[in-house]
Amino acid sequence: MDNQDMSRAKRREQTPKTPKVPRKSRKLWRWIVLIIVVVVAAGGIIFARALHNVHKSVDTMQRSANVTKARDVRQVVKEGKPFSVLVLGTDTGALSRDRTGLTDSMMLITINPKSKTTTMMSIPRDIMMAISGAENTFPQKLNAAFPIAGVGATMMTLQNYLNVPIDFYVLANMGGLEKLIDQVGGVKVASPLTFTYTPDEDQSPATYKFVKDQEAFQYAKDGKNFKKFETMNGNAALSFSRMRYDDPQGDYGRQLRQRLVLKALLKKSASVSTLFNSKFMASISKNVETDLSYNDMVNVVKKYMSAAKGQNADYLHGVGDMYDGISYQMVPETEKQRVTNKLRQSLDLSNKKTGTQFGGPVPSEFYGIAETNLNTINETLDPQ
Predict the structure, then answer these.
(1) pTM
(2) HSE (side-chain half, CA atoms, 13 Å) at 32
């Protein structure tokens, strides 16, 4: 053996030997790695499928309002600026089959990520209006704009009435909310007043009893033997939000209860598991339509989630008045201007004079009488 071979042998002796991994251990690690790979792959498939479900559902419920918007709404959302959405509720059947119902629930919502606030302004359904594109039918109630001339006419009429840009709309079948609430396991809502309500569906004696400041309520299918419940199912929530005649605030009280139910539903359905539930999304797509695109919604999730932290609820306050034997809501100019200012400020827009008195031009043969009625209310509530 020469010197070079001796040197190699010496180095081998000095180098510590790597212990051999038992065959069973190597096999165990291979199985662990394989399981991790399978779980990750499966998770990716589930997530991709879930996104597909969301995208598919949004595509199903997307419909254009067929109007020219006051501003470039896509750019507004893309840049993360405050935007507005008109939420309309109707009690018809599935929206794809029946578009003739009155929009008895109306709320103009503004979302401002900079101030981290969401402003929810309830709009009375009975305001006297000249409907955009159908002014010759004056006088009409605002909730009639949808069946007469479509959702675009509702948007334009209210936009002209308040001088506030309306960027998007969401039209929801309020009856469909029953299924959504059931699918999230019900909601909890503290009642703002004590009342008893019998839905009177198919002359059923079923009755609900709600108590002020309490989430717990009672229900009797036969109208006599009441049982206590802590969580509202869809039918209970719908009954809770529909009652109007026994509320001291009338329609304004009903709007408040509707907001409470919607707020509770949004809170309950905000989880990823619910959002990615195919049945939940399919139910939404059958009962909701909107002109918000999938990309718009993705941008909203990315840039506007902080605005959900600060919620500010308000309402446009009108006064009941009879006109030609029909009850309308007439809104004093100062109240209109207050609401216009608040909504424009929530959109980071400069203050401007509120919109036209009736949302559009009134036929000459009616204008004098309607003007007199409105002036009388303005003088009564705003004597200055």
Answers:
(1) 0.73
(2) 6
Q: What is the DSSP letter of 297?
A: H
Residues of the chain with CATH 3.30.420.590: 50-182+269-381
Cα separation, 360 vs 158, in Å, equals 9
User: Which residue, 319, 158, 176, 201, is CA-closest to 251?
Assistant: 319
- Scanning the structure block, which residue is given the tokens 């209109």? 336
139: Cβ–Cβ under 8 A, 6 or more apart, which residues? 128, 129, 130, 323, 324, 326, 328, 358, 366, 370
Q: CA-CA distance, 181 to 368, in Å (whole number)?
A: 47
Beta bridge partners of residue 112, listed in sequence order:
117
Task: Tell me the CATH number for domain 50-182+269-381.
Answer: 3.30.420.590
pLDDT digits (tens, 9 = 90+) for 298-345: 777 777 777 766 778 888 988 888 888 888 988 989 999 999 999 999
**Omega before 139 within 30 of 0, i.e. cis:** yes
How far is residue 252's CA from residue 202's CA, in Å, rounded to a whole number? 27
